[in-house]
Amino acid sequence: MNLKKHFYSVICLGLIHFSSVATAQNIDLKKDWKYREEKTQKWYPATVPGEIHTDLLNNKTIPDPFYRDNEKKVVWVERKNWEYKTTFQVAAATLKKKNTELVFDGLDTYATVYLNNQLVLKADNMFRQWRVDVKKVLKSGNNDLVIVFQSAQNVVDSLAKKDLPFVIPDNPRAYVRKAQYHFGWDWGPKFTTCGIWKTPRLEAYDKKEAEKPYVLNRKIELVQQPDSLGKSFYFKIDGKPVYMKGANYIPSDAFLSRVTKKEYEKVIAMAKDANMNMLRVWGGGIYEDDYFYDLCDKNGIYVWQDFMFAGTMVPGDKAFFDNVKEEVKYQVKRLRHHPSIVLWCGNNEADEAFKNWGWQKSMNMSKKDSTRLWHDYVRLFQDSIPKWVKEVDNKRPYISSSPLFHWSKEKSITEGDSHYWGTWWGLEDVEVVKNKTGRFVSEYGMQAMPNYSSIEAFTLPEDRYLYSDILQAHQKAGKGFIKLDSYLNRYFIDSTKIKKMNVEDYTYLTQCLQYYSLKNIIGIHRSKAPYNMGTLVWQLNDCWPVASWSVTDYYNRQPKAAWYAMREAYRDDITPQIDLTRPIDLQLEDPKISWQVKGNKVVLKATKAAKYVYISVKGYTGKWSDNYIDLTAGEEKTLSFEGKIANPDIKVVSLYDVLKKYK
């Protein structure tokens, strides 16, 4: 009988709780938004979530920012202030709730919010959730909501000027809690956006729902132990060491509202299909959408999560620290239930940058200023953030920065994680990696052009010659083409011939170079296990069409050549191949490749050995079962493409075919 009473009392309590929760009202505020340049007359339709650039583009007020050199034609946008407004209905029943709050999960970035002509909020952090009690301001019927966005570029410039002669390296972006890549990067455009980048809502309730208990049914350890060779750096999951194979992830679009669930699915599928088990969410982007982590959870992909700081020092004032504290606690609480996340990392490259990038000399920094910068850095990343993280998540490891040692330092190879940029930035040969493999290589890479179909999409025919202004506009890396040509000269074709190449052939060769480099570097890294316990390529994806280190293309997330190399090198059922024979040293003969189309399959055959056989179908934007393959003499190989194409226009090229043009 007592058991029955207990049962009924639990049911009743549950119903009471259900009743209070069930009557809570969440009203999404997505509809009927308009925008205008501040203090101008005309309002235009706006999309929420969105940003000013996408709204301007949708209203045909600016040209496509990704096309040709239009980036410089829209630079004016970031210097203006912009207003957004909507009117939403509130029922009398909603007003009777004890609590009514306006909730913003994403305001980018300096936003002043007015409800019914009353100032209710001033926001200054893109990464925080902002809640404001509006019960006394709301009214039954129509309610007017206005948000004014100040130019983030103007604000940071004024903050930096105010601090003079003190200078925070390397960019005024250090002052603002906003996605740092919005200020431009060596693979990304400069579109310093503003807008309502996540859906706002009205929450009305009598009693707040109890916070869900935080449970993590997995033991995560980062083992950093001194040993005879230096200091280890590897992950133990539930007591077992795991070799991490993966890539660095940047935001998948310069305009975040365009990253739909479908786009996330494409990108994570590219990681999963390439046999990756880790992605590092890089600190110059954003704390990703929950759906990104859901997909990682589902697909068995571990996440190394940076906090959003990259390659710069930080202000040390109380307001900045308080702002970051709220950001850290909110984001960790939001994300901690995802089992995929195995590490919190304070920042990307700020520690090694301060010690090795020459800021003190180039900025003529006084010893006093240098000391202050380092003190503020230590206070945030070594003292404050780990303490704030621990308050809300004491189950995951934290490191202050990635990496601690510059790639030119010996300790980069023997201790901690390493960003090994001797290849590419240092122009070292690929073979050097045999003697310079770190304990956990969390960044390295080789550039390549985007797929030629992408180049066709952002250029006019007259732009398609080597080093054209338009191609330069889509090459953001310092001396990018000079470095690419240096590697092509060593590994594929004499430099005197490169200048004669057409863009399509040049694109093909750069992708072969990236394939060759990553295949061998990954193979070398993995051969060094357990000394080396992780290899994360820079980078998985692009945020626009550009020459970069990405192994997938921006358009349609199509694989570049190196993606196929990674897929093979990350397999666990075979030992990765290492073949350091330079293609330039091969004695190639005409392979006379023939092919037959059978439905969605293409059967290839070569009479002589063929290298980097690349197959494409005009207009096809999917993924081949394999590509950039080698064929032995007389070998038949069947490749397939997804879906069906009537009368496919097929093109097949090999390394011989391209090189023979320039003899």
UniProtKB/TrEMBL annotation:
InterPro entries: Beta-gal/glucu_dom_sf, Beta-mannosidase-like_N2, Beta-mannosidase_GH2, Beta-mannosidase_Ig, Galactose-bd-like_sf, GH, Glyco_hydro_2_cat, Ig-like_fold. Residues 33-198 form the Beta-mannosidase-like galactose-binding domain. It is an enzyme of class 3 (hydrolase). It comes from the Bacteria. One of its GO terms (molecular function) is hydrolase activity. Keywords: Disulfide bond, Glycoprotein, Glycosidase, Hydrolase, Signal. Its EC number is 3.2.1.25. PANTHER family: BETA-MANNOSIDASE (PTHR43730:SF1). Belongs to the glycosyl hydrolase 2 family. This is Beta-mannosidase. It comes from Flavobacterium cupriresistens.
